[in-house]
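Appendix C reproduces, verbatim, an entry submitted by the partner laboratory led by Prof. M.T., so that reviewers can inspect both the input and the predicted structure.
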Amino acid sequence: MHAFLKHSAMVLLAAISISCQGDRKKAPEYDFLQIMERDTLRVLTLNTSLSYFIYRDQPMGYHYEMIKDFCDKHNLIPEVVLVHNSEVLVNMLNNNKGDVVAYDVPVDNSLKDSLIYCGLSQVSHQVLVQRSEKGDTLLKDVTQLIGKEVYVQAGTKYYDRLVNLNEELGGGIVIKDVDKDTVVVEDLIRMVANREIDYTIADEHVARLNKTYFRNIDVSLAVSFDQRSSWAVRKNMPILADSLNSWFARINVEPTYRRITKRYFEEAKRLADGGLSSFPVFLKPGQISSFDNYFKKYGREFGIDWRLLASIAYHESSFDPQSRAWTGAGGIMGLMPATAANLGVRGNSLFDPEINIKAGTEYLKKLLVSFSSIVDVQERTKMALAAYNGGIGHVLDARALAEKYGADKDVWDGNVEKFLQLKRLEQYYEDPVCKMGYFRGDETIDYVRCVMNLWEVYKEKVKG
């Protein structure tokens, strides 16, 4: 039935192409009909936390999930083509290196002769990022920036906007420029959240995404005019453009759009607290949770301290069998559906406590074995935990970078950990030794520290 529907769609597209173009000689050589025939849509995008990245060994990103929904509805395979920066996206598209740009391309009249803006379109602006904790005074108007220090990356649109805003106000803003090669905008947002600086500027969508990591920031004050942005295709691909526009008109009213938008711009993504104050109360002396028997059973079976399993489970789900993270990871041990399926766990079985704990323990064992060349058990455990949380590919990249730059690839603290965090910078994630691209490492580094700390508490309070 699916093949029949696809065939019918292709026949219809062919008819539309002929009727729209009139003269066969004017028919486009390559458009949606040819894309459907070869079952693959080449997607140009950037390797960022908003557009496309690999996390827990799965492709993710707001723009990626949106274009994947379009592909799923047309039985197409998205072939991601990563571009170094936004400035070359349009050139890559016009040089036939991809079929569609799935990224925020500013709508510019000067490009309308070569592009068709279509598909996902948004209106955004730049915003001030400031803290909103108890005792903080929120700025409500840009005039209140006079006399304030605002940190922005040198040579970026944020710096340019702040300079222009300062001129509009007659001066007075203290502009603190930072090197954009060593700091990304998300670093500055984190610095605001951590009270290292007071203010920075970011695109609204980037700021909203980061607010799901840092709940103590406010991103409501606009500091620029609205700017419309959109996906784009080449001018000679009108049928693909029409198909993307039809899809976007439909998805706007579908639950899928709300689910993806909520996932990236609303759902909390960071461990609430890395300190011991966040650790759970024991059910009773010697008992960590109501699932201790399963932790002990499968800890013995796979040769892993059951208290380590309990520590992972607490940080993944707070021992809630029905837990589901923003990533899609589910159950007590926070397993990704694809990872669970590789271990023979599918469907609702993911939320069965015993099945989930067994699968999570087996997965951790596989990761420990993959780092068996590391002699020190503690270091091997930290690498496995990092891989459990962020994906083994990024940990392997970080070890390769550590080795290349003279650090110890078998030591986590200050070595592999450092290079995992550096994978947020282009010069590191595009290094030839890296295979998995951009990575936001802060959360994984927090995860390793928190799980190891809690494991120590459990070992102290509950004898093995």
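The chain has three domains: 2-118+229-265, 126-225, 276-461. Additional entries are available on request from the coordinating office.
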